Every structure is written in structure tokens, then in C-alpha cells.
Amino acid sequence: MNITDKKAEKVIAQYFPEGLDEQDLIYFDKEKAYNRFLLRVKAAEAEYKPKKKISIYAKIRRVAAVILLLISFGGFGYWMSSNVQSKQYANMRVEAPLGSKVKLYLPDGTLVWLNAGSSIEYSQALGIKDRKLTLNGEAYFEVARNERKTFEVTSNDVTVSVLGTKFNFRNYADEERAGVTLIEGKVCVKKTGNEEVILHPNQQIAYYKNDRTSEIINVKAAQASEWINGIIFFDGESLPDIVRELERLYNVRILIANESLKSYRFYGKFYRTDQTIQEVIDMLASTDKLKYTINNKVIILY
């Protein structure tokens, strides 16, 4: 077969430089050849994909962007996890009933003793976000040390801040005086509107609620926490203060019949676990400053 189509010859020469084999020449047909040509062009175009050159700086920027994105998602995930975790924890309230005391460990490892008629409130997440709690009454603390999170106890308008130490905090709502006694380490005590006060071992700060004054007293700090061992100290306490203490510790009702008795002060050391309330009242009566009667489980002092 003769090939007379000049255009076809050019096309064949351009796209089939190796030439047509004998089989092609025998069966050559312009339409078929043209269709084969189109198919080869499309295949060649599909294989040829020009690549853009990416500079090393662009690559670095892309990697940095990916890393930043991962960090951002990681930080956001941690924040979300912490936030959800904190919300899942409930607020806890622990009370020591009248006539008893309670020992417990807080989530951060801090040891707490609650005296009779006292309570504390704190979050189950204490130690995760912060270490704050509120106190009503009296408690002894052995605070687990944590340099990153300050331990704070607030009772009404008095706040004690520590990193790790041992102290006693007393602030009953029905008493005229609140006090913080330091046994070991160092604490910072602040009353709303007042400057911060730093206490050292064997020091006590006393806040007087009536005239809103305060003073620092040198004391035998160990005595302030002896109540956790069942020991009661009366060191020149007024009779009304002693009565309130005995009512809480023994869960009894005591009435003072004569106003003149309220000015008396007493000294003594008692062992709550070994002595009954009547034995304690007997010791007070042995001073010849008062007498007592018991009427329907109510003790009347006169």
C-alpha cells in the first residue's frame, strides 16, 4: 500500500520515530492511525506532570506549621480535658459531729483533724487546679508540701497560706476570738483589709472579733493541737468559753445561772477519753468558785 498523504507521513514521522513495522504497513489505515495517535498523545500527557520546585524554606515553613498545629491541638485538648475533669469533681463537705473528732486525708495528701462541731469544704479536685478549702470551727493541718501550689484555708475573713507545714486554726462562729497557731514551718496569715502576717513556730496570732484587733502571742504551740490526742487545756479561759468547749466535746447542754460566774477564769488539763463530763465539772467545782446540778441531762452552774 502506498502512502500518499503527506500530512499523515509527517504525523507518523513525528510520533512514531521508530517507524511503522511491516504489520502496520500492510494494514495501515489513516483513520485507525489517527486514532492511535490520539490515544498515545493522551497517554503521554497523563504521564507528564510537571512538578513545582519547592524551596527548602517553604518546606521548613510547612513542617513548622504542622508542628504548631499539633501543639495547638494538644494544648487545647489538655485544657478541655482539665476543664471537663474539674467539672466532674464534686464539692465535698466533711463534718465532725458534737462529741467526736474526725481524721481525714485530702486528695493532695494533707492530713486534717477536725475538732467537734467543725467542718471543712473543698473540691475533690483539690491539688489538681489549686489547694483551697474553707473551715468552720477548729482543725489541725499537716500540709503536704507543694512548691507550685499554695495551700489556703479560709475561715470567714481570715486566710492562712502555706506551702507545707503544721498548724492549728480555730475560728468558731460563736466565739469572740479566732486564732492560728504555728507548730512547724512558716505560714502567712491575712485578715480582710489587714496586712499579711508571717508566723514562726510557737507563735499564735489572735483576732478579736468585737474590736477587730489582733496580736501575736508566744505560746507552747504543741498544746494548741493536743486536742487531737484527747487532751483539753484551759489556760486562764473564761467560764463561758469553757462551757462552749465542753458542750462541743461531750455533746451536752450546760447553763450558767449567775452572770457573776461569767467573769471567772480557770486553769486545768483534762483527758477527754478518760474523764466523763461530770468528772470535769467536779474539778471545776473543786475550786469553790461554783456549784452545779444536773436536771434532765442539762448541767446548771451556779
Briefly summarize what is shown.
With 302 residues, the chain is of the alpha+beta class. It is built from 7 helices and 18 strands.
How helix-rich are the residues, as a percent range? 25-40%
Largest sheet: 13 strands, mixed
* Morphology call: elongated
Q: Which fold name is given in CATH as the topology of the largest domain?
A: Jelly Rolls
| Named CATH architecture of the largest domain | Sandwich
Assign the structural class, choosing from mainly alpha, mainly beta, alpha/beta, alpha+beta, or little secondary structure.
Answer: alpha+beta
Strand content: 25-35%
SSE layout and pairings?
Layout: H1 6-15, H2 22-27, H3 30-47, H4 56-88, E1 91-96, E2 102-105, E3 111-114, E4 118-123, E5 131-142, E6 151-155, E7 158-162, E8 166-171, E9 177-184, E10 187-191, E11 197-199, E12 203-208, E13 213-218, H5 221-224, E14 231-238, H6 239-250, E15 253-256, E16 265-271, H7 277-285, E17 292-295, E18 298-301
Parallel strand pairs: 5-6, 15-18
Antiparallel strand pairs: 1-4, 2-3, 3-5, 4-5, 5-8, 6-7, 7-10, 8-9, 9-12, 10-11, 12-13, 14-16, 17-18
Helix pairs in contact: 1-3
What does the model show?
By secondary structure, the protein is an alpha+beta fold. The protein folds into four domains: 6-47; 53-85; 89-229, Jelly Rolls, CATH 2.60.120; 230-302, 3-Layer(bab) Sandwich (Phage tail protein beta-alpha-beta fold), CATH 3.55.50.30. Helices cover 30% and strands 34% of the residues. Strand 12 (203-208) and strand 13 (213-218) form a beta hairpin. Helix 1 (6-15) packs parallel to helix 3 (30-47).
